[in-house]
Prior knowledge:
The structure holds two protein chains of two kinds. By secondary structure, chain A is α/β, with parallel strands linked by helices. In chain A, 32% of the residues lie in helices and 19% in strands. Chain A has nine helices and eight strands. Chain A has an eight-stranded parallel beta sheet with strand order 3-2-4-1-5-6-7-8, with helices on both faces. At the A-B interface, loops of A face strand 1, helix 6, helix 7, strand 8 and helix 9 of B.
Amino acid sequence: MDYKRLTLFAGHYGSGKTNLALNYAYWLRERAPKVTVADLDIVNPYFRTKDAEADLRAAGIELISSAYANSNVDVPAMPKETYALIDGRDSLGVLDIGGDDRGALALGRYVPSILAEDDYEMLFVVNRSRPLTRTAEDAMTVFYEIQTACGLPFTAIVNNTNLGLSTTAEDVLASLDYADEISRLTGLPVKMTGADKRLAPALKDKVENLFPISILELYYMEKEGTSLGKINF
Amino acid sequence: MSEKVMMKGNEAIAEAAILAGLRHYFGYPITPQTEVAAYMAKKMPKIGGTFLQAESEIAAINMVYGVAATGKPAMTSSSSPGIALKCEGISYLAGCDLPALIVNVQRGGPGLGGIQPSQSDYYLATRGPGHGDFHVLVFAPASVQEMADLTGRAMHLAWKYRMPAMLLADGTLGQMMEPVVLPEPSNAYGEDNPWATTGTQMKRPHNIVNSLELAPETLEKNNIARFERYRKIEETEPLWEEYLMDDAEICIVSYGITARISRNAIVEARKQGIKVGMIRPITLWPFPKEPLAAAADKVRSFLCVEINMGQMKDDLELAIKCRKPVDLCYRVGGMIPTPDEVLEHIKKLAEGEE
């Protein structure tokens, strides 16, 4: 799989962009000495790349994120260091864009520089398990909304169909046609299919461009086997 | 729709309300519940419903009051500071015996507080959020699945008892994503609501929706009748879940997100030979007094785990009539305890008891 100087992950919110962006940054770091992740999410108040800051630094990856991320205020400000990443051109960059057109709007100010350099991939992340992008047609609505909001055309599709930690290999396999249909409708290739690395053995012969990912686990979710009982009314 | 989908807690509330027949939503944005409104804004125009972003929280709850008077399901959602603003309207709904769904995805307080999660509106929700003598039904989901299931439940019971219901979640549950099986479509409100202001067609006397009573004798009678209804609800509607309580010597009492953290701590404590279980209230009003009183006969002590300064602890001590010691494990201000913090507390209790 080849890569460009800048890789941008955009899509419907809840598609798994942040997890994917972090995993992609680790993948790039194995191939290049200087990798920077930029959190451009101005929509989500919780569960941000900032949660992985210590792990990223330990792996030698820089993180640019808002000074207000994970704080007690809601200030959708973009970190000034983002300009250094985009105009400096001395580091590979992974950009985690906020969900939907509202999240992508903030990307617009960087687009002239990104287009001028012309060494980028703008990835449309899709998750068939999300109710508002269940069909390829619904995903296309989001596709056009994001492009219109930020002014940067997509260059490829990433199929990241998942149900979090309970995703099965069947869920991923059942989404391949969906991703192909989006590929056909957009005329863009499916760059990769992201899937929980625990599913990789079951998927590796069946999925082209499989990209195994580690999922960030949250400590307040039950460990396996202790989940809540079903309420009987 | 029986297939699993991946949803944020806030979205699950919105979709579940629509599936239970909601077509009128009024809100005002506030983190961490904004996705409820955002989802309604996307979905309502497609199904012929109303999404309206009001000029304020107060306006939104009064729009709910208006729709509720017509016998249609109506809903608003907000987070802690916004719910405080809605309290006047909630009291009017209660005073007029109108059903409505109010969602509170709690954040830290008091005042503007912060945007991180909290359970510090427990008092506000369970003591009747507003002026006057009244209650609202209060549901405390602990997963995205329960966000969906309890939303429908809240709407059905609000209509059955003609009173407002509150879904009391917290920022974590609102923001986190989990697989969910959405409920089957239902009609939470019956077809025929004889009390609704839908036009007399010259065939019946006027229905009047009003909380003002000129005669104190009548107002007293209305209040007493309402509380007789509340007594019935307290007998029949409490919901709770028991976890490893058969041989428990320590009983954790926790709801919402902290109940899930406690579960991990209990599993770890059991591995170390400590007999600890949990009673998780799912309705906070009516409070599940009966299983807690029964547990007080068996266990040596209780441990409340909450993300507030111990608001449910009062209800627990009342339910068990202070027969056993009750300790408190808490974090506040947007902080959440880790399973290890809860485990340490359990261990301290277990050692103290030996």
